[in-house]
Write a structure and sequence with these properties.
Blueprint: H1 2-37, H2 50-73, H3 78-100, H4 114-144, H5 149-155, H6 157-160, H7 162-177, H8 179-200, H9 207-234, H10 241-270, H11 276-301, H12 307-326
């Protein structure tokens, strides 16, 4: 009895050891088969475009510095004029280099694609209007209506939180109806929201009159984010997605810098920080300029190809790249 009990208690242990010892070889064999049949996906190895990086980075630095410091130092000062001129010359040299470089950091042929160029014009316009407007409105709540920075940030929240809820839906709709209608609608909503704010803005404007405009602006932003990304990436080969994405991000950030600089200059031409009324007098025309730029972005969005053209454009680069790799 003892022997039987002893042996029966050892059987499960042996079976467990046997099953555990047989499993790893099977998984290893399966892994080897998968590695032989599934090729590793990776982009082509390209040398770093150091001259392009230096020229483009230095050019953008000069332009951004001139735009950011222009209001403080004076737009006619030697420092600002020199910074802008040198920056533009370096950007021109960057374009010339990229046109002849064997492995360019930013292939200029990207801009030969209507989808790529129009979508980046949309991004430039949107970041111009939105960043410049938020820059002034956050100060409006603090200087004109005497809220703390935290309270001012919370009051802008209906604007900035909307993409969290709308952007996922916009991504799904973009796959079904294409990027163009969503981008046109999004830019139009943002432009209308800025016009609304410019119309009702006053020293004593109730917060409730601004909330609908903030919701419209946030919804409009969300309708642009995912569709714009889809349109840009569909216009290039899969191996060029990183280059296209980097260029798009740089153009958007440049739009934000331009928006803050230009709208601040418009503000300074009509208003000041002398009093709440003087600040509001400067905000109104600046916000309206932002609305006009956003409306121009909506017109640029009309140039983005429709859904059928998007699908064809996405398939063509992928097919040509597959043929090149096969050859």
């Amino acid at each position: 009895m003892r022997a039987r009990a002893h042996s029966s208690s050892r059987c499960p242990a042996r079976s467990r050891r046997g099953s555990s010892s047989r499993a790893p070889p099977r998984s290893r064999r399966g892994g080897r088969r998968a590695s032989r049949r599934a090729a590793e996906s990776r982009g082509p190895a390209r040398p770093l475009d150091l001259p392009g990086l230096a020229l483009g980075g230095a050019g953008l630095l000069g332009i951004v510095y001139g735009l950011v410091r222009g209001q403080a130092l004076g737009w006619g000062s030697t420092t600002i004029v020199g910074s802008l001129v040198v920056g533009l010359l370096l950007v021109g040299a960057f374009v010339a280099w990229e046109l002849r470089a064997e492995h360019p950091m930013l292939p200029m042929r990207f801009f030969g694609s209507r989808a790529f160029s129009a979508t980046n014009a949309v991004g430039l316009s949107m970041y111009f209007g939105i960043f410049g407007s938020i820059f002034l409105l956050s100060q409006f709540f603090q200087f004109v209506q005497h809220y703390t920075p935290l309270q001012a940030g919370l009051r802008v929240l209906p604007w900035t939180i909307m993409p969290m809820f709308v952007a996922p839906v916009a991504g799904i709709l973009s796959d079904r109806i294409g990027s163009r209608p969503l981008m046109v609608t999004g830019l139009a909503l943002q432009s209308a929201a800025m016009l609304w704010i410019g119309q009702v803005s006053s020293v004593t404007v109730p917060y409730g009159q601004l909330v609908p405009a903030f919701v419209m602006a946030g919804t409009g932003m969300a309708l642009v984010f995912a569709p714009a990304a889809n349109a840009v990436l569909a216009a290039v080969r899969p191996s060029e997605v990183g280059q296209a994405s980097g260029a798009t991000n740089a153009i958007r950030e440049l739009g934000g810098v331009l928006g803050v600089a230009v709208l601040a200059a418009v503000f300074a031409g009509s208003g000041s920080y002398a009093s709440p009324a003087a600040y509001n007098a400067g905000v109104i025309p600046a916000i309206r300029v932002g609305a006009v730029v956003l409306a121009v972005g909506a017109l640029a969005a009309l140039l983005v190809p429709g859904r059928r053209a998007e699908v064809g454009a996405a398939a063509a680069p992928a097919a040509s790249e597959s043929l090149a790799q096969a050859a």
